[in-house]
Design a protein that fits this description.
With about 120 residues, the protein is mostly beta strands. Helices cover about 0% and strands about 50% of the residues. The mean pLDDT is about 95.
Length: about 120
């Protein structure tokens, strides 16, 4: 069992930056994927960034060149650095880890980009 807690969201002006954190408890053994997803009102949840078990880092097209994610560190925390934020980045951001037959999600943290 894995528990995930996101933090770091808030209100930021366009062009600003935020760093989100995801703290994990429980074993991360046999994790095959880890990353960040987001969901805006009325929209499907979409990929922000993830790292596969093969070590490949992939970013969703809307955030390429602006966001950077890291894998879990020795304190079982991973980060999402968000730069040059746009109003369309407004969403609830979720941390995710997955095993072959189970996916774990945090409760999300709200990011609002507005003047």
């Amino acid at each position: 069992q894995v528990q995930l807690v996101e933090s770091g969201g808030g209100l930021v002006q366009p062009g600003g930056s935020l760093r989100l954190s995801c703290a994990a408890s429980g074993s991360l053994l046999s994790v095959i994927d880890m990353g960040w997803y987001r969901q805006a009102p009325g929209k499907e949840r979409e990929l922000v960034a993830h790292i596969t078990s093969g070590g490949v880092i992939e970013y969703g097209e809307p955030v390429k060149g602006r966001f950077t994610m890291s894998r879990f560190n020795v304190k079982d925390t991973m980060y999402l650095e968000m730069n040059s934020l746009k109003p369309e980045d407004t969403a609830v951001y979720y941390c995710n880890v997955a095993r072959t037959n189970q996916s774990y999600w945090g409760r999300g943290t709200q990011v609002t980009v507005s003047s």
